[in-house]
Design a protein that fits this description.
This protein is an alpha+beta fold. The chain has a single domain (about 1-115, about 135-405), classed as 4-Layer Sandwich (Anthranilate synthase), CATH 3.60.120. It is built from eight helices and 25 strands. The protein has helices at about 50-65, 145-160, 180-190, 235-245, 250-265, 305-315, 325-335, 385-405, and strands spanning about 1-5, 15-20, 25-30, 30-35, 40-45, 65-70, 80-85, 90-95, 100-105, 105-115, 120-125, 135-140, 165-175, 195-200, 205, 210-215, 220-230, 270-275, 280, 285-295, 320, 345-350, 355-360, 365, 370-380. Strands 1, 3, 4, 6, 9, 10, 12, 13, 14, 15, 21, 24 and 25 form a 13-stranded mixed β-sheet that branches. β24 and β25 (about 370-380) form a beta hairpin.
Amino acid sequence: MQVTTEILGSHPQLSQAITDREISTSWIRGEEGLIGFGVYKEATFTGAHRFADASAWWRKELAELSIANNVHGAGTGPIAFLSFAFTDASESRLVIPEIIIGQKGGKSWITWIGSENQPAINSLGGEQRVPLNLQWEPGSIATDEWTKRVAIAVDRIKAGEFEKVVLARDLTAKSDNEISTRALITRLAENYPTTWVFLVANLIGATPELLVRLSKSLVTSRVLAGTIRKTGDEDRDLGLAASLAKSSKDLEEHEYAVRSVADALSPFCSSTNVPESPFVLHLANVMHLATDVTGVVNEGASRVDLLTLIQALHPSAAVCGTPTDKARNVIADIEGMDRNRYAGPVGWIDARGDGEVGIALRCGELAADNRSIRLFAGCGIVAGSDPEAELAESQAKLLPMRTALETL
């Protein structure tokens, strides 16, 4: 099958671009990224070997393609969008779109599968708003029960069983009408331009956390752990940012997450750089402690692709805990819900094995009929955690998706 990539003369706003196929995938940050239309092929994977199985499937599909790439660079040519489940028991998904529009550094391009001429690209006109009339329903467990489980986790940490665990909760919204994935992507991109707005197989969200980027031999991972909610008052928020940077509880949580990423990357890298202290990342509604860990892939080794790094990194302490195996068992024991693809790797990989993958946070999973959506949020629990404060943090993390849905 023929795959062609060419420069686009126009520079469409990605979230507003349309073709004769339905939007199927996205990975947008600010004015840059990728958006896919239609589905050429897709596959599901489960089990302990799901990353290796997905890599083998992608290589097999590439071998069957005749690629004419007149643009080159990361994100050009055929792309597989990926969304992996948190555990190996749930389904992970890979999707190859029929048409992909990319934009980076003032350059726009289009990739399409098939022998026809370049597909027509237009910009979306004003969409007619259809009232959703959302009804919010409790998630897998009630809020008071969730705070009790946080307290149980804190007691077990203080007893020395483990150091940190991430506990998640969910919330469901039901709608009288179909929820438009395009409208939701557009709203998230407008409201949270510094996050990666993603859509893969009905999992949609705006994540601030980059699990790993591989570009040629350079590896980058942005670790977020430690959160405080913004007030909207600039002076007060500056004070809160300073308190976050000094918080022993949040610094402890952050250190575990950074250490887990650096340890996971070290076998693949000839050198890694881990800053001594985090910076405060300001988002629209919250602030996080953040650290960018970088590394250079070992020279002379067999080519390490993105899926190899994902397998080594997932799950990090930022979404699981420390030690990882013990935290994973605690999650299975007391969290009380199936995360599915929440907190799993989500992003894209190209034909060279490069790509960008975030952690599926600040997200929701749409039902097949697009009339309901399940939202997720999680909090890192350490010895100094307070259950009520963790509940408030989880509510702040649900806000991006709630606000986007309520303003469609």
